[in-house]
Amino acid sequence: MSAKLNEAQEHCKAAEKFLKTSLLRWKPDYDSAADEYSQAAQCYRIARDLKKSKDCYIKASEMYKKNHSFFHAGKALENAIIVSKEISSPDEIFTLACDSSSLYQQHGSGDSGANVLDKAAKIIEEKSPEKAVKLYQQAADVSSTESSQHQGSEYISKSSRILVKLQRYDEAVDSLRREIGFHQEAGNIGAVGRLTVAIVLVQLARGDAVAAEKAYKEWGNNCEAPEMQTIEQLLQAYDEEDRDSAKRALASPFIRSMDVEYARLAASIPLPEGIEPPPKAAVRENAAPSYVSPNASYMQAKSDDNKADYTYEDKKTDDEDELC
Predict the structure, then answer these.
(1) Tens of pLDDT along 108-157?
(2) How far apart are CA 73 and CA 60, in angstroms?
(3) What value does the mean pLDDT take over residues 26-33?
(4) pTM over 0.70
(5) Highest-confidence range of 2-6, 94-98, 245-249, by mean pLDDT?
């Protein structure tokens, strides 16, 4: 280890010499200095001095950039991300990834620029999912400029799933729309059908059954039979406020087989309120009998007598009066 540390220091000294000017060297030799810093970074990496390794890679990137070697400058920053993933903060990795991607794009290597953003997003996803979302979205943007729609859809798909996990449903809907757009341009109709189910679930999680139905009308023609059956059963249940049907639809085998984030989302979607039957009147046990007036029996008997005195002749007379 000490031998590698000494070797790294020698490379750093050599790099500094290449940056000095003299009577015979009128301009700094940025390219040679960059190579020396890169070798020093490798030595520090082997010696497990990760901070100095990262610093040397960053210096190498600066030298390459001054010499207009943009690809090598971007690669040096990518190496800095890899060696420092255990010691750098998510903010530092985010910044390094954006700078590296920009340098790759200046060289014309858009795919490499998208790839470094994807790598950095995976590193910081657990600690800082919000920044990982931004990196995945940038990767999709860079990839789309390179006409790599398939790769762009993969990046934006990762963004969509993280947003669902974070319960940022409004942003998740926008991300899913972009994802559908990527697949439509690539002619991947099957993926559009699956994503239609996903966007319906997210809209229901937002509490907007109307938007869920609109999404189905917009993209439902791309769905296969199991997808259509699941969505229609689900939308009908929410339209009729049928809790049991909605619960069965959300637990369907098709939804359970979706990506983990959407399967978990289905389990947390609020069920429709439903129409509850009116509550039955409560009866108190050992309650006292209802109060009955003492005159009630007399009045009832009198009423019965009057009915008995009402003869057929009386009824006939009443009928004649009505005819008149």
Answers:
(1) 999 999 999 999 999 999 999 999 999 999 999 998 887 555 788 999 99
(2) 7
(3) 90
(4) yes
(5) 94-98
What is the rounded distance in angstroms from the CA atom of residue 291 to the CA atom of residue 242? 44
Q: Dihedral of the CA atoms 223, 152, 158, 186 (nearest 10)?
A: 10
3-state SS record for 38-69: HHHHHHHHHCCCHHHHHHHHHHHHHHHHHCCC
Q: Are 198 and 169 in contact (CB under 8 A)?
A: no
Residue 284 has pLDDT above 80, yes or no: no
Q: What is the mean pLDDT of the chain?
A: 86
Kindly tell me if the per-residue pLDDT of 266 is higher than 60. yes
Q: Distance from CA of residue 289 to its chain's centroid?
A: 64
Alpha-helical (H) ranges within the chain are 2-19, 30-46, 50-66, 70-83, 90-107, 110-124, 129-145, 149-165, 169-186, 189-205, 209-219, 225-239, 243-250, 253-256, 260-268, 296-309, 312-323
161 token code pair: 């799933």
Give the phi and the psi of residue 27 in degrees, each rounded to 5.
-125, 150
- Cβ pair 131, 90 in contact under 8 A: yes
Between CA 82 and CA 92, with CA 87 as vertex, the angle to 5 degrees is 75
- The span from the CA of 127 to the CA of 95, in Å, is 15
As a whole-number percent, the residues of the chain with pLDDT over 70 amount to 82
Neighbours of 66 (CB within 10 A): 15
What is the dihedral sign for C-alpha 265, 266, 272, 273? negative
Query: Is the separation of the CB atoms in 247 and 239 below 8 Å?
Result: no
305 or 31, which is more confident? 31
